[in-house]
Amino acid sequence: MREDANRPRTRPTWLPIGCWPAEMRAETAAGYVDEPSVNSFMVKVERGIYCQPVRMTGCLPKWNREKLDTDLRRRHNLMAVGGEVVEDISDLI
Predict the structure, then answer these.
(1) Which secondary-structure segment (H or E) carries 24?
(2) Domain count, the chain
(3) Can you give the pLDDT at residue 90?
(4) Pairwise CA distance, residues 70 & 65, whole Å
(5) What parts of the chain have a pLDDT lower than 70?
(6) Among residues 16, 20, 40, 87, which one has the fewest Cβ atoms lying within 10 Å of its Cβ?
(7) Radius of gyration of the chain (CA)
């Protein structure tokens, strides 16, 4: 049986173990920040805990890994200084 040349082929995507893409769909982003579900991730996006996705016509909403890392550092009171992540202890002094 010949495959229709005009019909787009679909193949599942994959990532090597231990790798995270630079931009992620909601399902992947929720896993990246260790939320228990996409719904709980989206609630925190709406609350401003995590950044909003980039939305472009004809594309799925996508979250940037570096922006999510910044959100996580802020959430845990960590700051990047010269490429090194350090804990902000100013509120303890």
Answers:
(1) strand 23-24
(2) 1
(3) 65
(4) 9
(5) 1-8, 12-13, 15-16, 80-93
(6) 16
(7) 18
Answer yes or no: pTM beyond 0.85: no
Distance CA 86, CA 92 (A): 14
Looking at residue 17, what is its pLDDT? 77
Residue 76 lies in a domain: yes
Q: How many CB atoms lie within 10 A of CB 32?
A: 18
Tokens standing for 25?
């769909």
Identify the pLDDT of residue 43.
98
Residue 37 CB partners (closer than 8 Å, separation 6+): 30
Quote the domain boundaries for residue 74: 23-92
Q: What is the spatial distance between Cα 46 and Cα 32, in angstroms, rounded to a whole number? A: 17
Handedness of CA 25, 29, 31, 35 (dihedral sign): negative
Output the DSSP codes for 33-64.
TT-SSHHHHHHHHHTTSSPPPB--TTS--BEE
Asked if residue 71 is part of any domain, the answer here is yes
- 62: in domain: yes
